[in-house]
Amino acid sequence: MSDDEIKQLCLMDIDKILHSYGKTLKDYPPMPLATEVDSSLLTERVIREELNFNKNDLKKNASDMLAIATPEQRYAFDKIVTAVYCDEGGFFFVYGHGDTGKIFLWNLMSAEIRSRGDIVLYVASSGIASLLLPNRRTAHSRFKILLNITEDSVCNIKPDSLQAMLPLKAKLIIWDETPMVSRYCYEALDKCLGDIMRCSPTYSKDLPIGGKVVVLGGDFRQILYVIPRGSRQDIVHSTLNSSYLWKFCQVLKLTKNMRLSVGTTASDQDETEQFGE
């Protein structure tokens, strides 16, 4: 990009920030105004941001992490990465309670796939959970999901828009803490990516999420979707495993508590497992 194009992109970002405070660049006369920029430049910048990693460092990180992964983590890693590069789609749910290494697995898969020059979209259901992720975003922000979600809701992304380019080009989508939101969020994403992927050679109308490889993660024993004044039946009906998407889902389990296994004896680990049971 030329210096002028970089300047215009910068002014557009500043103007966007000012809009969130009810201001524009016009309110500050010494500042130049942004002019129209070729949409391909915006697309290029968005894609570049998701590829702005050192591939050699990532490859080493992936190798080092894989060497210390548990058999369960290695099995999940192999299963998901194989699905990514077979271009046959895949819908997975990694089920494990706290400290079983879900974040470790996310980072391992991301490092491996990004080291090959491909894009991984990494989101979480809550802002707090997203702080643990690189290039952190909430799912609602990334996929423009409505806050007041219903069965008929769709993501606010048009198939030919700039926001559609990242999901289209992404090799893997990871969504953490998934039981915390309504199943309608995943169904809205299914409809959205189905529309976006129609022009892709890997699109299949028989596969969920437009044939993309999507990995969900979480623990159904933790906080479920909150329905004000909702009954137990309402809450259960709103969970992911009540969705039509669940029948496509391959469940991968992580059971070993990584935090408690560090620096403990075999007898301590046995006692911990018995206590957990």
From TrEMBL:
Domain of life: Eukaryota
Keyword terms: ATP-binding, DNA damage, DNA recombination, DNA repair, Helicase, Hydrolase, Nucleotide-binding
Cofactor needs: Mg(2+)
Enzyme nomenclature, EC number: 5.6.2.3
Pfam families: PIF1 (PF05970)
Catalytic class of the enzyme: isomerase
Coiled coil: none
Official protein name in the record: ATP-dependent DNA helicase
The organism of origin for this protein: Arachis hypogaea
